[in-house]
Design goal:
Distance between the termini of chain B: 12 Å
Radius of gyration of chain A: 22 Å
Strand content of chain B: 5-15%
Largest interface: A-B, 31 and 36 residues
Oligomer: heterodimer
Largest sheet of chain A: 4 strands, parallel
Order of helices and strands of chain B: HEHEHEHEHEHEHEHHHEH
Radius of gyration of chain B: 19 Å
Mean pLDDT of chain B: 96
Shape of chain B: globular
Mean pLDDT of chain A: 97
Low-confidence stretches of chain B: none
Chain lengths: 223, 310
């Protein structure tokens, strides 16, 4: 899933300081799963914004709504009525959400309430880790099913580098696993260490962001 | 003797004599005089001088320019190149430019992560890794082709090197990774600073057993301790470095003003021990900001004067 975290309320307050009425729009997709942008968080953020502005003597009206998903045009349609007399929208979806809302309402200011952080998964309750960099051409089959592009600090294809120590990456002060150490251990378990003997060739990054913003088309679904 | 680039370093290694390389890092500014001054100590005592490429991810004046300065001083450079800051277009371009200037030794590295340097907010590149850079330069040199397949008109004649760190983990993989670098094109390797002799000897035995030291020259890395503080720092904070406590105790055992002298004694002993290990083809002395001590260390280790080659 896409993992996102809340922006500091002070940053959001600064964005909307000139407005009297805003819509806080949440999303029931990934950001609900990672507890940063669902229905509950919409309620919390709305209360925080109202309270802060009340204390500042500059009351703010906040409308709460949580879309089914903000990354599909039909699911943001219900906002049409809500934004009619609003000054701005604060979206707490991944950054696709505010961009979809901005595209739908050309004359309405839209602000992100979250920082979109990475594509990852839950490691334990309250902890998420990055697993994928969306390079567009998955190569993990060659590396024991583990991704060196996203999970090696240097995206090495022939690692581990000289900074790997005790299974930990030199980056992150011991908090990051050396993915190449894990790849090595896993291939050893699988009896496939010979896979690491030959230099791995030049990666094609044109399928990644390096090829420009990407579009995926499924012709059979377009009919 | 078949030579690929015909550098002094390559000739000495191929003649079977022990080689000496020293490291000289460009300054964090455009002060060429400072760099010339440091390099002047190394002129008579190194067969070739490594020029670092923004080492520890700190901005310094560029490796290519520093190599040119060395050449003007009559010093043969080993140009270091890291893949952290440049994509395959810029890397290949700089290799061609370096060859055009007459640089004949190239050390291919991935480089320290940018989060350790003076611009941790930088966008890093890592289009290639060190193994791929070796393969790219070898392809340009031997096959006359760039990564794209474009023909190289005027092939870069480079004696190709790489780094190895026998002190990083997983230990058993270190020799496999060296083999991989050799397959990709490495003709010589320079190691991380060696303090743990036992582990290094084990590594060399594995390398000998796999026949790697017959395919590639190993220059053993040495960095003299200036003080017990430096030894402690390297033990605690430099990733992938193992410093045995015995050295720290030994430095602690002498008065503060004698610690530098003791550090030099240790370095000389280390060089002598390293040269006894089968498969060690020379020494890579990294006297970080202590270049003026290189002649003293190498003389005491019996490595001066340097041999002359045509």
């Amino acid at each position: 899933m896409v993992v996102a975290e809340s922006k500091p309320v002070t940053e959001i307050l600064e964005m909307i300081k000139e407005f009297k009425k805003v819509v806080v729009a949440g999303c029931k997709g990934c950001v609900t799963v990672c507890n940063s942008g669902g229905e509950k968080e919409v309620g919390i953020l709305a209360s925080e914004l109202r309270l802060a502005r009340k204390v500042a003597g500059n009351d703010l009206e906040v409308v709460e709504y949580t879309c089914e998903r903000q990354c599909d045009p039909e699911y943001i349609e219900p906002l049409d009525d809500l934004v009619k007399d609003a000054d701005a929208v604060v979206s707490i979806a991944c950054s696709v959400g505010p961009q979809y809302i901005a595209a739908r309402y050309p004359f309405l200011p839209v602000f992100p309430g979250l920082n979109t952080v990475f594509i990852g998964g839950a490691a334990e309750h309250g902890v998420w880790k990055e697993y994928c960099q969306a390079c567009g051409q998955c190569i993990i089959g060659d590396f024991g099913g583990l991704c060196p592009v996203a999970r090696c600090a240097k995206s090495l294809m022939n690692g581990p580098c000289g900074g790997s120590s005790g299974g930990k990456c030199e980056v992150g002060k011991g908090t990051i696993d050396c993915i190449w150490h894990l790849i090595y251990e896993r291939l050893k378990n699988l009896g496939q260490l010979s896979k690491l003997e030959n230099p791995w060739g030049f990666k094609n990054w044109s399928t990644s962001r390096d090829g420009g913003p990407r579009t995926m088309i499924r012709e059979e679904l377009r009919k | 003797m078949t030579l690929t680039a015909g550098s002094k370093l390559e000739k000495i290694l191929k003649s079977g004599q022990k080689a000496v390389t020293c490291e000289c890092g460009p300054p964090r500014g455009a002060d060429a005089e400072h760099f010339r001054h440091k390099a002047s100590y190394l002129k008579e005592c190194a067969d070739a001088v490594n020029v670092t490429d923004n080492q520890t991810a700190v901005v310094r004046f560029c490796s290519l320019a520093a190599c040119r300065i060395l050449m003007d001083m009559g010093i043969e450079p080993v140009m270091q190149m890291v893949t952290r800051d440049m994509n395959r277009i810029a890397l290949q371009s700089n290799v061609l430019g370096a060859a055009a200037l007459g640089i004949k030794n190239l050390l291919c590295l991935t480089g320290d992560h940018n989060s350790f340097g003076d611009h941790p907010q930088a966008k890093n590149v890592h289009d290639l890794d060190s193994v791929q850079l070796l393969a790219a330069v070898k392809g340009m040199r031997d096959d006359g082709k760039m990564i794209s397949g474009t023909e190289v008109v005027g092939r870069p004649q480079m004696f190709l090197g790489a780094a190895v760190n026998p002190f990083a983990d997983p230990f058993e993989f270190r020799v496999v990774r060296m083999a991989k670098k050799i397959k990709a094109g490495a003709q010589f390797v320079q190691t991380q600073c060696i303090y743990d002799m036992e582990r290094f000897a084990k590594f060399m035995q594995m390398a000998n057993d796999m026949g790697l030291t017959e395919q590639c020259y190993v220059l053993a890395g040495v960095t003299p301790f200036k003080s017990v503080g430096m030894a402690n720092y390297m033990k605690k904070f430099v990733p992938g470095m193992l410093v045995p406590d015995s050295y720290i105790q030994r430095l602690k055992g002498v008065p503060k003003e004698k610690q530098a002298e003791e550090g030099i004694k240790i370095a000389v002993e280390q060089i002598q021990q390293l040269l006894e290990i089968k498969g060690v083809a020379g020494i890579h002395l990294m006297a970080i900001e202590w270049e003026e001590k290189a002649p003293e260390i190498l003389k005491a280790a019996g490595l001066l004067p340097r041999p002359k080659v045509d």
